[in-house]
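Task: complex structure prediction.
Instruction: return structure tokens for all chains below.
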Amino acid sequence: MARRWWTLPLFLVSALAPSFSLAGPAFENTAIVRTIELGGSLVHVSTTYAVKALEPGQTTYQIALSKVERAKTSWLEAKVKGQTTPLKLSEDESSAEYLLSISLPKALAVNGTLNLVLETMQTHVTHPFPEQAAQNEPQLLKYETDLFTISPYTTLVQRTKIKSIAPNVISYTTPHDVDSFVRDGSVTRSGGTITYGPYHDIQTDTDFVAKHQQSVSVHYSFDYPVIEVETLRRTAEISHWGSNLNIEDKAHLHNAGPTLKGHFSRLEYQSQNFQRKQAPHILSDFTLHLPPGVTNAYFYDQNGNVSTSHLRTAPSIAKGSKAVQYSVLQLRPRYPVLGGWNYSYTIGFDTPLQDSVSYDAKNGVYMVGVPVLTPIPGTVVNDAEVKIILPEGATNVEFVSPFPEISNSMSTHISYLDTVGRPAVTFTYKDLTYKHTGIIYVSYQVPLSAHLKKALSVSAAFFSLFAFTFMARRVNLNLHKK
Amino acid sequence: MPAAYPLPSDLSPVTVANTASLLRIIALALISGAAIASRLFAVINFESIIHEFDPWFNYRATKVLASQGFYEFWNWFDPTACGVIYNLLHALNLPVDIRNICVLLAPGFSALTAWATYMFTKEMKDESAGLLAAAFIGIVPGYISRSVAGSYDNEAIAIFLLMFTFFAWIKALKQGSAFWGTIAAVFYFYMVAAWGGYAFITNMIPLHALVLMLMGRFTGRLYVAYSSWYAIGTLSSMQVPFVGFQPVRTSEHMAALGVFGLLQIVAFGQLVRAHVSSKQFQELLLAAVISLGLIGFFGIVGLTYKGWIAPWTGRFYSLWDTGYAKKYIPIIASVSEHQPTAWPSFFMDLHFLIFLFPAGVVMCFRTLRDEHIFVIIYAVVASYFAGVMVRLMLTLTPVVCVSAAVALSSLMDTYLDPTEPSVEDDKSETSTTHSTGTASASRPATPATSKKTKKNKEKEKEAAASAGGVLSELVSNVTSSAAAAKSATTTERGVFGMDTRLVVLLNSLGLLLFFVVHCTWVTSNAYSSPSVVLSSTSSDGGKNLIDDFREAYHWLRQNTAEDAVVMSWWDYGYQIAGMADRPTLVDNNTWNNTHIATVGKAMSSPEDIAYPILRKHDVSYVLIIFGGLIGYSGDDINKFLWMVRIAQGVWPDEIQEPNYFNRGEYRVDSEASPAMRDSLMYKMSYYRFAELFGGQQPMDRVRGQHVPIQGPTLDYLEEAYTSENWIVRIYEVKKDDVLGRDLKIANAFNQGKKRKRTKPMSRRKAIGA
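Output:
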């Protein structure tokens, strides 16, 4: 018997968490409910664990995810149900399964219970099926997941709900060989919701995964385009002289839904619009929520300004306070983006510097906060690069990212009227979603001399020009006077 | 000496000179500012975008230059200014986008043109005329039409180079300076590299030299200036790959070579004459000169016949015979800017300058120095050319500005000059009055003389008052000037009093103001719309942009294979290359008539004839412009007859223009001729157009005709993309059928199968039975 998923953790846990190795399991899951909200490029999963402590003084609860699932999960967060502060998570990826250790807010007494909620965001988990669709055909996607929610602890009852927004579910897998866990039925469907379970008495048995774990898939129709931003390059440039923070995003958008079968017909598109029955896989416009107080917003691509965008600005708000209103930028690409089509564009806007930079006069330190991304609803950003360009002559640069980045680097950026160039910090990220809207904080110092450098160099240039003409007018190069 | 109004008298000459110089600099700076600003309408109303069709090629070439360096680029051949500016700005840490440099290059050069015109006119008359000429050329619509922001066209640079070359030539001629001759040659070289119209300079300068020689004005200065310009200019122009050995092999360049030879002979004759005094020998020499000249001329003619020298090209013939192009080279005639100029466009482009222009030429005759002869020749030649081709209005504009400025400035000089003719004063004093009157630049006199002037003026005032009222003054003025023409002894010529002055000056000021208003209006309304973006005004006064071109080009760029060849009419070749980044079959630089005729044939033939042509040329997409839905009149159906004509020129057996008419009418409705209805262009334009009207009678808004409800069908092409307002329609050329059938049969088979499924059984049986 291959005791895959239980032996290895044990093996490791013996080194990490003594409470595990000494006695039997410290917890028991009285119930696990996993809710999967199907989407296009994003699938939101929230799993509720009803935990009962079997031993006193336990402060670390472990959650297991399969390696495949972890690779597709770009964001996760654990909370005590009903509370808003996320719990501390530590990850252990060296085992066969992925183990997350959650530090509980307080130790549980024996038989003490707690409801934990793990929320994850999965990306690139759906695929169009069939892979091609004509312009007037629906968009069908397929989602696959494991039937059982695994856990290092015994689970008394668990169920998995898969919810589709549209009630139109084409098909779903009926699990096999689950009679030993089932009392009523292995799967039920009501409307767009498919419920697997309840399954009873899931043991932490060593051969459980190998023997019973199986993959189930749901084939459903999805009414919104499946959009991926393949690359996103964000540049934030801070100007103290202009009192301005410019943010510019260069994005390459791809419609990852079923690729267009045949060709695009404008006639059909227009008649679909006329009848208000637009095909689900066509992206004709999208909306971005920009920070309040933006000015000079622009939207262009390789061929110049895209004249079909609208911006409604909200007034600027005091720093630190919660924004009530956002500036809304409605973008319409030059052409409707059908399945398999690409569209690359650049948007940018200016915000007042005082909205995002604070100055600590005591230490002479500036602190700037730059959001990682402006999310397009329901899309995933495959590769993101955020470059923050600090003012020329900035020193003592320190930075912190709201979530771990893949890499960061310092470089020099040369722009208008620079002499030595501006320091720039670059972060790279992968698979960002609307949950990744944190703020990167960068602190730096700018000496007065650096502030004045630009003005001095410009005036020196002009002075030398005038001095040159002043001299040139008075020098006579003629060999002999006429 | 009497004066009409007082002048400050306590100024030192240095102060006056410095102030005048400062004022000139400020005026020139303001003129440059106005020249640039008036060209920015397009950027403000639309955006910083490159207009038209040609400039896109230059834009791409510049991008190559900026990214790959000069030598890589030399194979491309094109203006280099942008690349140089781009690299310079980047070296100065000014990372300006190359598109913005290209867009703003033309306005920038127009400021330089204003300066070059100032320098040129200064040589003709004086600084004040120069400033006027600079102001004129800065805002005159005739030049703005070619140099608004975004028209990144060669002409924008060319006019500056033209004016500066002429200025350097005049300067070289005046001073007999090899230095200025070399400068003229260098700018000539740049002009050769920048614009095909350099032949204008190649012929203007020799013509001027020849006329000077014929007028007996041969001097050593002319010899030095011309020889240095010709030798260096020709050698350097031969370095341009596009020109090569043309300067010694084509007729366009022969005049310059001939005049160069003649100049050598004449100079030699002068040299001999200086050393020999016999009258007979001189006559002999004259005969020798003439015979040598004739031998040279006939030699050139003979060589042309032999084929050593290429005869004039067709483009040149079309300059002499306006009907030539239409008959023999329809491709030239098909370009709208190659049409003869309509009269109103002279006024539209030049406004009141066109009236002042002859006056300025006459002024040139009055002081007929060598440089004035140049302006006269230029005026005559350019007027003729401007009448032949709309496009050559551009070369007329500078000379109109110069002569109009000379005329207006003479008028202003006369009426601004405060000196009044002294009725009682004796002869000697009036002659000095005249000399100061003509040279207005030296008007600020030294304190001693101006004091005298003041005294005299007071005396004069009393005299004028005693003489009588305004009317008598006017009368005396008129009579005196009339009389003066006959005999200078009776009365003085001149202007009396302030009122006469004011009448004339306010009048000219009014004209100048109207000129400014007109220029602004024409620029903003006629010349500042990028043809890539169309704008319309909605019923509530809002502005709607029609951006179909960029929409379709962007689609091509992002969603087709990178090496997919696009076939379109040549007008859009550069745009497709620039904005869609796809190779095209023909573009704006295609002068091979057969290539264009091939596209014309494909467009005007039925599908099954066009298909092999498309396959042979490896065409993946066919792009057409269709304005029938929103009424965009510059579409391909309206250009279609030119395609037919050009194709007919090469395949007269297969394509005949009359076949596309129905009883002499060009129709697209149900009365359209069979050839028209079967042509690929017609089918692509109206494919599924009728369905848009949902059973209603479909209407083509450009032609104002009802097209048939049953639209055309396509077998060999598939609709790939149609832009929002249906202006751009892109079709994909189908690959060969997998079963090796003819595509038409395959298509019919497919449709047949479909019909089987959809139609009721009983009816099918009935048909079968």
